[in-house]
Design goal:
heterotrimer; A alpha+beta (531); B mainly alpha (302); C mainly alpha (335); A: 531 residues; alpha+beta; 4-stranded mixed sheet; 19 strands; 31% helix; C: 335 residues
Chain lengths: 531, 302, 335
């Protein structure tokens, strides 16, 4: 009997598929399987591509291809003068997706918004731990539990967030994946049916695509959501063909088995660029790989010493050896795709002789130091070991002996935080929300010393600038403050800024409208394919 | 101890020579085995004289000659007979140097696996009882995991790298030696010469090592040959998966791992290291077949 | 017979304990602090760290964690993936059919070619056919299969375009899984083109995974046949004037089959090891690829549970083969 049912359902499905024989289908060869389809508990970009950017939408959205914010499910918003209250006016008439497992009876309202946040916030909410082992990494990572004082429902279509303290990046945080808006009605239905974990397997949202099916580690299927508030997408079906091997992805792309692929092998890029059927998009990623000195330990407490070492680094050699062309030399601590990036700043010239002289002038001779190299490959630093070796050679040319230190990743992360750490540490950061504070404040602020501030660097002038920027709502004013902060950073040189890795997106010629995103997410709204 | 008259007829130089000649007679009947032996000897010579034979150093980068095809193909250069890889290193030189790694891997892995496996197996077979049960249970447990999977997990724990990969493979291969040694010891133990040695007052260690073990050597040698080729294959697989030897080490499997991206563009980068593995492993297996035929008395007369 | 089976069953207990110890112990050795790894570059407050450690049970005494692991496993709970938060057993069960389907086709390929080749080689012993077949078998046995897979993709998929590059079935075919076997599901749905597509996707991976078993089976069949052909009853049958086909087909082959069946059974563990490489090369969504990714991501719970399940599967299959072997071959029982 059950088999018969499945059969009938499947036949019906096949009929639907056959009916759409002329449907435009875009195939994305994705790099891995999503952790789940509820974006809130996870941190991986792969999950966000598959869950939040397709199925869900948020109160505010990042402008396609930029880090600036535009209205999303919130039509407009107001910020109180003390910057502690944010009042959002919801967009009227926003529909949730209808699927074979859920039919919505009402449109989006304030309940959905409040529910989406409270379930991650209040431990007495039944959805707080709806699946064993679940936890809300980003919600707590962005310190929302302390930041939010209360969320108030003013009326059906108006919601007010009250904060405990000012935070200029708050709006940008609401554009992040964990802030995706979930249907309260759907959640209630699941709760009543006792199938709460379905929220993580069968998502329903207000986004541009409706979830259809997921075959574990193989294929995810979506169809365009007819009633999407931004209008129906030009393509009809979207398929993620999960292909973990980059070489296989490239082959499938060339064979026409998919239209777009992320993360090609650096070695493949020239070949892909040469293929007349393909176009390869390219952009700096929203990340930075750096070498953080311990500015509280002699002799690295002297600016001249840090500057001298920075001048001894041959960045081009690192780009060639470590990034193999898929990187750009970093000048500032934020990537060039981010707003407020200061283009006027110039990098320290590579000059080992001058570096040697500067060290001698600073009274430092026969310096020997440790350089910590991460044991893992990260987007901002594909091979820290090799990078450390290049640095070792570079510093040797300036008369500095380097001992390379490494340890297991969890140890590395925790021990590199110590204020009395011996040595300079290789590390990096990938941005979350495109706000400069997410780099400058999080990584270089005084309150991050002993934590994310691996340089243990606390500079009064710099701190004042980023604190001011945090409580300024006007973006032009904030830009000026951050530009000045970057000048001070470059003068003080708590880090050697090494590189921003480059992101490549090979796609077939018939694809149009794909915009590379500085946040590193892959979005398919607005994408079309020529017949 | 040396005063005790050995019940086994003393092997004089002459007799040993004769035994070797008899072995060679059986071995050389198998033409494949002789060819395999020659190929193997040549590989060993290549490995020994690698620095002399290789036209370039294994890690020297010719940055202007990236992905040069082999000499016989258009665009090839006589400077790089088998072409260059994606970084501009001479493939022939890397293959020649790689022979050292593959042979070293086989040698080290077999040595470790054989010493530990045979020791455990002999102890188990000699003492029987709970010692036997405990040892053989551990071996069963190791065999219950797919070898490559276990090696993968072990390497993740020990850290990437050639030496750790070798340790992991040795651990995975050693139960075979233990089982074989145990079975051989158990069947030899009841033989007359062992009993008389015992009566003559030989100690446990002497009985195990001097009296019994040499008589079980045949199957162990065959197993060692098989393990030798297995070790090369598994190390190459680990290298291919990125967990074995790390680049720029010219280990053949690692060379393949780096070359995967190039399969459509530069066939030689992919083909050559694989061929090198195949030829070496095939030669060793041919020798192994010949050894089995020559050493196994059962098959000898069939 | 019963005693032998009971004895064999009793051995499972210590092996099971050993397997759980290995899976548990290895995973504890993988890294120091799984919770810190979860946070990555982002700093986690000590309170949150403590909370998560408690949630995952990492702060309890080690023996308690082990006991919990074993007791849950006995009840069919193999833990929850740290990455996806789904049950390890569920993941295994969804992916296992893909591996089994691939392994079955690989074995089919190996048996259909290996057994006839072995028989002919034995019957025509010393002929050119024998020499070529056995030479080829040894080449197959010595093959680094990951390389073999790459070569086949370049030539068959890349240059000739005969088979797809990767995956289990064409993307245009979509139906809800019933058995999890693409070939069977497509037939149940009566979707002929989908069935053809599934078969086309299976060709190369099956050949790659089946190559070594093929070589082993061919060699084993040949030597088993040679042994049987030399025995008295076959000679008698021959001298009685039975046709050679009858002699080979009925008398010799049936008796030669026993060791061959054992060989086939013993390939299961090897197939799992081979599946790791084959599935990686062909992006085949099965157990091998799943495990290798879990190891790469240091998903402790998945590695631990997965290792245990895989070892249990191999153990059960080996037990089955042993008992089957004892049933057809009474001599073994005495040992």
């Amino acid at each position: 009997m059950k088999l018969m049912k499945t059969l009938m359902a499947a036949t019906a499905l096949m009929a639907v598929m056959a009916g759409g024989a002329y449907a435009k289908t875009l195939v994305f060869c994705s790099e891995g399987s999503p952790e789940g389809f509820d974006p809130a508990p996870y941190t991986a970009g792969t999950t966000f591509d598959a869950a939040s950017r397709t199925v869900y939408s948020r109160l505010v959205e990042f402008e396609h291809g930029k880090t600036s914010l535009i209205p999303g499910l919130a039509e407009s918003w107001e910020v109180s003068n003390d910057a502690l209250e944010y009042t959002f006016k919801l967009r009227p008439g926003v529909k949730f997706q209808t699927t074979d497992f859920f039919t919505p009876t009402r449109e989006l309202n304030a309940d959905d918004v409040i529910f989406s946040f409270e379930r991650q916030w209040k431990s007495d909410n039944p959805w707080f731990a709806y699946q064993e082992g679940i936890s809300y990494e980003y919600f707590s990572g962005m310190s929302f539990p302390d930041l939010i004082k209360e969320i108030v429902r003013l009326d059906d279509m108006t919601v007010k967030f009250v904060l405990n303290r000012q935070d200029a990046a708050f709006l940008a945080d609401l554009g992040m994946d964990f802030a995706s808006i979930i249907s309260r009605e759907y959640a209630d239905q699941l709760e009543a049916a006792g199938t709460m974990s379905d929220l993580n397997q069968k998502p329903v949202g207000t986004g541009p695509f409706t979830f259809v099916d997921y075959q574990q580690d193989a294929v995810i299927r979506y169809k365009a959501f007819e009633d999407f508030y931004g209008g129906k997408q030009p393509i009809d079906d979207l398929i993620f063909a999960i292909t973990t091997d980059a070489a296989v992805r490239a082959q499938k792309l060339k064979a026409g088995e998919c239209h777009i692929m992320p993360y090609p092998n650096p070695a493949d890029i020239a070949d892909l660029q040469a293929d007349p059927n393909l176009v390869v998009g390219e952009q700096e990623g929203l990340n930075i790989g750096y070498l953080a000195y311990n500015t509280q330990m002699a002799p690295f407490d002297k600016v001249e010493v840090r500057k001298a070492l920075n001048m001894a680094i041959n960045k081009q050699a690192i780009l060639d050896a470590v990034y193999q062309g898929a990187g750009a030399a970093a000048i500032n601590p934020i990537p060039p795709t981010m707003w407020s990036y200061n283009t006027a700043i110039e990098d320290d010239a590579y000059d080992p002789e001058a570096a040697r002289q500067m060290l001698a002038d600073a009274g430092v001779e026969n310096l020997s130091m440790k350089v910590w190299a991460m044991p893992v490959s990260r987007p901002y630093n594909p091979n820290a070991q090799r990078m450390a070796e290049v640095l070792q050679a570079d510093f040797a040319a300036a008369g500095v002996t380097v001992e390379i230190v490494t340890m297991e990743w969890a140890e590395y992360l925790s021990q590199s935080k110590a204020v009395d750490r011996d040595g300079a540490v290789l590390l990096g950061w990938t941005g979350d929300n495109g706000d400069p504070d997410n780099f400058l404040g999080v990584l270089l602020g005084c309150d991050a010393v002993g934590g994310n501030n691996r340089a243990q660097w606390c500079n009064e002038e710099f701190e004042k600038l980023i604190q001011d920027a945090r409580i300024t709502a006007d973006q032009a004013e904030r830009t000026a403050l951050y530009e000045q902060a970057q000048v001070i950073f470059k003068e003080q040189a708590p880090w050697a800024t090494i590189a921003h890795s480059k992101v490549f997106m090979p796609m077939r010629k018939e694809v149009s409208g794909y915009v590379m995103d500085p946040l590193g997410i892959h979005r398919f709204d607005g994408v079309d394919i020529a017949e | 101890m040396t005063e005790i008259a050995s019940p086994v007829p003393p092997k004089t130089g002459n007799l040993r020579w004769a035994a070797l000649r008899e072995f060679w007679r059986y071995f050389s009947v198998n033409k494949g085995a002789v060819i395999g032996l020659w190929v193997f000897v040549v590989t060993v010579l290549i490995a020994i004289f690698a620095p002399v034979l290789a036209p370039h150093s294994a890690e020297q980068v010719f940055s202007k000659s990236i992905l040069v095809p082999p000499v016989w193909q258009q665009g090839g250069s006589s400077m790089f007979i088998l072409g260059t890889d994606a970084v501009g290193r001479d493939i022939l030189s890397r293959l020649i140097h790689g022979a050292r790694f593959s042979l070293a891997i086989g040698l080290v892995v077999v040595t470790i696996a054989m010493i530990s496996g045979v020791t455990l197996g002999v102890i188990a077979g000699y003492f029987r009882g709970w010692v036997d049960a405990a040892i053989m249970r551990v071996m069963d447990i190791i065999l219950a995991f797919p070898s490559l999977l276990l090696a993968l997990v072990l390497v993740s724990i020990l850290g990437k790298g050639l030496f750790n990969a070798m340790l992991a493979i040795a651990l995975v291969l050693q139960p075979h030696f233990a089982r074989l040694a145990r079975a051989a010891v158990m069947s030899e133990k009841t033989r007359e010469y062992v009993t008389s040695a015992k009566v003559a007052g030989a100690g446990h260690i002497r009985l195990m090592l001097v009296t019994i073990l040499p008589n079980c050597l045949g199957p162990l040698i065959v197993q060692a040959t098989l393990s030798f080729s297995n070790a090369i294959l598994e190390a190459a697989a680990l290298g291919f998966l990125g967990l074995g030897a790390q680049p720029p080490t010219p280990e053949w499997g690692t060379m393949l791992s780096g070359a995967r991206d190039l399969i459509t563009r530069a066939w030689w980068v992919v083909t050559m290291p694989g061929l090198a593995i195949l030829v070496t492993v095939l030669a060793i297996n041919l020798v192994g077949d010949g050894l089995r035929d020559a050493l196994d008395p059962k098959l000898k007369r069939s | 017979m019963l005693r032998y089976i009971l004895h064999r069953l009793a051995l499972i207990v210590p092996t099971f304990i050993g397997i759980t110890l290995v899976a548990f112990g290895l995973v504890r050795l993988l890294g120091s602090d799984p919770v810190a790894l979860l946070a990555g570059e982002r700093v986690m407050s000590p309170e949150r760290h403590a909370l998560l450690s408690e949630q995952f049970g990492f702060n309890r005494p080690i023996w308690e964690q082990y006991l919990d692991f074993v007791l849950s496993a006995l009840q069919g709970d193999f833990g929850i993936s740290i990455r996806t938060k789904t049950a390890v057993l569920d993941q295994f069960l969804t992916l296992f059919p893909a591996t089994v389907e691939l392994a079955l086709f690989a074995m089919l390929f190996a048996i259909l070619i290996g057994i006839p080749a072995g028989i002919f080689a034995a019957v025509k012993r010393g002929s050119w056919f024998d020499q070529v077949t056995m030479g080829a078998a040894l080449v197959g046995y010595s093959m680094p299969i990951f390389w073999w897979g790459l070569l086949l993709i370049i030539v068959v998929s890349g240059m000739l375009g005969w088979t797809p590059v990767s995956g289990r079935i064409g993307l245009q075919f979509f139906f809800r899984p019933i058995t999890g076997f693409m070939t069977i599901d497509s037939l149940i749905h009566g979707n002929w083109p989908a069935f053809v597509s599934a078969l086309r996707h299976l060709i190369l991976p099956s050949i790659v995974l089946g190559t070594i078993p093929l070589a082993i089976i061919a060699r084993q069949t040949r030597s088993a046949m040679l042994e049987v052909l030399g025995e008295d009853y076959v000679r008698t049958a021959r001298s009685k004037g039975l046709s050679p086909r009858r002699v080979i087909g009925i008398h010799a082959f049936r008796n030669a089959l026993i060791p061959v069946i054992t060989t086939i059974g013993l390939q299961v563990g090897m197939l799992m090891a081979g599946a790791i490489l084959t599935e990686t090369i062909f992006s085949w969504p099965g157990i091998g690829k799943w495990m290798i990714e879990a190891i790469g991501r240091r998903d402790y719970a998945t590695v631990q549970g997965g290792l245990l399940i895989v070892a249990l599967v191999v153990m059960v299959v080996n037990l089955f083969v042993d008992v089957l072997y004892a049933l057809v071959n009474p001599r073994i029982r005495v040992q």
